User: Which sequence fits this backbone?
């Protein structure tokens, strides 16, 4: 409960930097870098050593490689985060695989041996965990896929809590599709109803979890784009209908929204008080401009760290409902949506 509260503290959110090696490789490839351990380390070292990051970021989700990695200067990534006052977290799922007899949907692996891995991750310094299941609206979604996602999340959450880790519960309703916003709300409501039923059945302590939902928006391939006020209205409707106030924090994913959209939507949700801390756990919407500034060059590290700080601060202000978009440049509105995104 103390960890959940610390992560969900005013003006703070999570930096998701737990891309699998394959996905991190895609990020590096976008700036012409090879997917080697040393390039992944250089990139992640740049992120965690950003001076002053802890002012806006309270938690960082790591991939296993990073949890055990040392920076080039000697201290471990975990030590650097702790010094910044940032709680280290760990992605514990083993990724998505096709689900037989579904509508080409997937299920999330990783329960086997999870208790032991969680105990080891705790020893290595992790204090919270993440597990990402996905729900596809164009695929139906089928009841078996939705139920399996919810049940898997609940089993994971119970196991993580037993090992002292705060579970981030993430059934990502993907942006893929050309549906209207009402359809997203309907699927998200069904998803969270299932998820909370199984969380309760598994006796998960609600005060010691964090949620990572998608915002309720029209499908990415729908020509209509909602205003931040509409997104906030729909998303808060979802949350108030489905999430008990015992849950301390709602940490949204960005899901392919532009950096600007992700910040504006979060800000709109914090214009009036909420029963939970409503904040961010972004990967793409925090990292996009960092990668562009860095380009893999040592001489650009300081500029790239400034880019991260700028996004972190913007989202921190949005968490407080005090964000001013007039300071943004046009490229912050570049969308990074990718069909069938795998993490
Ligand atoms: P995005 O913010 O890029 O959607 O990623 C967040 C995340 O951690 C997905 O699991």
Assistant:
């Amino acid at each position: 409960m103390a960890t959940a509260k610390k992560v969900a503290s005013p003006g703070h959110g999570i930096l998701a930097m737990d891309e699998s090696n394959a996905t991190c490789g895609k990020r590096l490839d976008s700036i012409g870098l090879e997917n080697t351990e040393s390039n992944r380390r250089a990139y992640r070292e740049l992120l965690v050593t950003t001076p002053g990051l802890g002012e806006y970021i309270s938690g960082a989700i790591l991939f296993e490689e990073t949890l055990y990695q040392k920076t080039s200067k000697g201290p471990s990534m975990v030590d650097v985060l702790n010094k910044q006052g940032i709680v280290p977290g760990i992605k514990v799922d083993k990724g998505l695989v096709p689900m037989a007899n579904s509508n080409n949907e997937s299920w999330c692996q990783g329960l086997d041996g999870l208790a032991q891995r969680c105990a080891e991750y705790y020893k290595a310094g992790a204090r919270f965990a993440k597990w990402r299941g996905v729900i596809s609206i164009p695929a139906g979604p089928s009841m078996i896929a939705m139920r399996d996602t919810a049940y898997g999340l609940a089993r994971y959450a119970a196991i993580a809590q037993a090992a002292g880790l705060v579970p981030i519960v993430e059934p990502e309703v993907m942006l893929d599709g050309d549906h209207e916003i009402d359809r997203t709300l309907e699927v998200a409501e069904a998803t969270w109803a299932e998820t909370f039923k199984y969380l309760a059945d598994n006796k998960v302590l609600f005060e010691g979890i964090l949620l990572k939902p998608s915002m309720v928006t029209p499908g990415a391939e729908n020509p209509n784009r909602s205003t931040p006020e509409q997104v906030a209205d729909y998303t808060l409707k979802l949350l108030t209908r489905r999430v008990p106030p015992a849950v301390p924090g709602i940490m949204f994913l960005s899901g392919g929204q532009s950096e600007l959209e992700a910040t504006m939507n979060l800000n709109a949700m914090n214009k009036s008080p909420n029963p939970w801390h409503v904040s961010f756990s972004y990967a793409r919407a925090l990292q996009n401009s960092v990668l562009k500034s860095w380009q893999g060059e040592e001489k650009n590290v300081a500029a790239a760290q400034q880019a991260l700080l700028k996004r972190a601060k913007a989202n921190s202000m949005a968490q407080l409902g005090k964000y001013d978009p007039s300071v943004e440049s046009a490229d912050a509105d570049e969308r990074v949506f990718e069909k069938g995104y795998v993490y």
